[in-house]
Prior knowledge:
The chain is α/β, with parallel strands linked by helices. It is built from eight helices and seven strands.
Amino acid sequence: MTAIPTLSLDRRTALVCGASKGIGRATAQALAAAGAKVLLLARSTDLLEALREEIRASGGRADVVVADLDDREGLAGMARGLVAAHGPVHILVNNSAGPPGGPLLAATPDALLVAFGRHVLAAHLLVQAFLPGMTEAGYGRVINVISTSVREPIPNLGVSNTIRGAMASWAKSLSRELPPGVTINNVLPGFTDTERLASLGEKRAAREGTSPEDVHRAWLAQVPERRLAQPQETAAAIAFLSSPAAAYIRGVSLPVDGGRLRSI
Ligand SMILES: NC(=O)c1ccc[n+]([C@@H]2O[C@H](COP(=O)([O-])OP(=O)(O)OC[C@H]3O[C@@H](n4cnc5c(N)ncnc54)[C@H](OP(=O)(O)O)[C@@H]3O)[C@@H](O)[C@H]2O)c1
């Protein structure tokens, strides 16, 4: 009988973008706990170093990569440097801050360009840089942290809705082009207890003349689980998609939203 595929990431190297906070931070911890060597990418050196020490203290393997995903000139060279220093990167988690809120009609072309660059173009450059190593190893996992807005656009997040759709189409297109053994999938977080959500709640409360607690209650009313997700729950889905157990899952968008999406 064929053995049940493992969830272990032993012998794998992962690059987690946006690893200093929130979902990215929890993802780095989850991948390290599953056995991967985790390269922690973001701009905040101190937060990344603290996380590296935390992972090492619990027996995991981690290194810091201070980089700005907006610096596209430097991104491909940085990625090649990582492969030279650490060997092939088998798992790439594309994740960074969501674009600022606001109606789409009020968005400047620049706001759309910046968001497209930080999300789609950065991810594209990183996939191109890591694909040869993934292909040679016969093992690659690309996981994009996007949003449920891929399925149902969210009011007042016009730029985000637009860019998330582009990212999902980019990923689906790539899922048809990547070689066997190299998969790409999206995770769609719902309301997740991170700095980003707290800041969105405060801004919405100020705009609507209400309190952050009222905004919070309105959010939970939409979620059958009646609570926010913890970033570790989103990370667990990403760890699964990174593993050998998910080898036949390709080109999907997995909501981790407590059942908030109404669409099938
Ligand atoms: N939280 C939610 O409820 C929720 C819901 C749906 C979708 N999402 C999406 O999921 C993603 C992660 O959300 P989160 O709540 O974990 O966000 P977060 O707490 O704001 O964390 C964002 C991470 O991205 C890094 N980052 C931002 N800009 C960067 C840049 N230019 N270069 C490199 N790193 C950068 C930040 O680190 P530095 O500042 O140190 O660079 C940080 O580590 C976002 O795209 C968000 O929109 C979140």
